[in-house]
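User: These chains co-purify. Model them together.
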Amino acid sequence: MSENISPDEKSVPFYPDHITLEAKVAMWFGIGLIIIGIIGLFNPVGLQPPANPMDTPAHVKPEWYFLAMYQLLKYLPKTIGALVPVILAGIVLVWPFFDSKPDKSTKTSRTRFIIITVLMIILIALTIWGEVS
Amino acid sequence: MILRYRREILLGLVTVVAVGVLLLLFTHGGQVAASTEPNFELARAAAGVQSVANPGTMLPEAKQDPCLHCHIAGEEKGLWTPLIRWLVFGTAGIAAVFGMVQSVSMWQTRAPWKPLLSRAGIWIDERYEIAKPLEKMLSKPVPDWQRRWWYCLGGLTAFFFAVQALTGIMLAFYYQPTPDAAYASIQFIETEVRFGAAIRIIHHWSANGMILMATAHMLRVFIMGAYKKPRELNWVSGVTLLIMTLAFGLTGYLLPWDQRAYWATTVATEIAGAMPAIGNLALIFLRVGWNITALTLSRFYALHVLVIPIITVIFMGLHFMMVRKQGIMKPL
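Assistant: Joint model of the two components:
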C-alpha cells in the first residue's frame, strides 16, 4: 500500500491520473485488436480439413509457444524430454525460495539480465528452428 | 395532457422511425464476407455420420432470411407479429425519449441537480459505506518511477485475459463441443454469424498477446529481482498463472476439430504420456481413454471454459491483492 512510499517522492494519484495512463495503453491495444478483427472479417482464421484419425498429415506442428519444447523433444529420449519441461516449471516455481538474498547492488540484476538474454536467445533459436524444420 | 407533450411524442416517433431505417440499412448492408460455403456434409462424413438421427442437432440451412428485420428466420410470415413488435418497441422508445426529455427539463427546475450516477452512488453509500475505503484505495499515490512501460506488462496480460473472456463467451454461444458439430459450428461462426469471423480472429490473436505479455512480465520481474522476500508467493501465483495460460492454449487448440487440432493434441498428449510413472495416468486423464474421441473434446472444452478460467481468476485475484498489499518493488 501507500505505506512504503515516502511523502517527498514525486507522485501522481492512482485515480484519475495513473488509471488514465493505463487505460490509454489498454485502449491502443484494444484498437489493435479491433483492426485485427476487421482484417478477420475478410481473412478469417480458417480451418484445415476436418479431423481424420485415419490420415496422419506429414508435418504436425504445435502452436509457436510449444515449438521450442517440441524441437527439443525430437533430439532427446522420450522420457527425459517429457520430464524436462516439468522439472523446469518446478524449478521456476520454487526459485524465490532458493534465491532469497536481497540485492546489494545492480550487479546481480545485470547477471540475471545476461542469463535471461542467453536463455531467450536459445528459446527463440529453437522456436525458429522448429518453425523452419 | 397528450397535447402538452406533442413535441416529445413527435420526437419519439421520429427517433423510432430513424432507428428503424438505420436497422433496415444495416440488416441489408452489413453482410459478413463469406470465405467458403460451410460444407456440413463433409464434416459429417469425416465424423463417420451418414445421416443425423436427431434433427435437433443439425445446423440451420446456410441461408439468411431477407426479412430478418421483422421476422425471425423460418418464422411464419404474418401481419400481426411485426405489427405488435413495432408497437411494443415503439411504445418503449417513445417512453424512453419522453423520460430523457423530462430528465433534461428537470435540470432547469431543480436547484442542486445531481447526475443519476452520483445519486446511485449516494444511495449505495448510505447503506454500505464504501465511499471512504474506495476513496482511500483510489487516491493511493503512484510515484513517478512506477510510470514506466515495463510496469504495464502485467496489467496488459489482465487486459488480454478480459478480451479472451469476452470473446470466448461470444464464441461459446455458437460453438458445439461434439465431433459431429464442432467443425461445422466454427464454419458457421466464420461465415454466418455476424462479426463471428472478427470475434474468432480476435480470440486467436489475443491469446498470443496474452502469452507474450505474461512472459515479458515474468522476465521483467525476474531481471529486477522482484520475486525476492517478501514477494515469493506472488511469484509462485504468477508462475501458476503462466502455466494456466499455456494450458488454455493447449486445450483451446483441439476445439476446432480439424486435422491440425487433432494431430497436435495427439502429439501433446503423447508427450504427457511419456512421463515416467504417471505418464499413462496423465494420458488417460487427458484423452479419457487411450484414443482421442468425443469424450476428449468434451473434457478439453470443460477444462478450457470452466476449470482453467476459474483457477485463473482465483490466482489473478490473489496476485492482485498481494501486489496491492506489498506494492511494486523499487529497483536499486
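Residues 29-33 of chain B have pLDDT under 50 and may be disordered.
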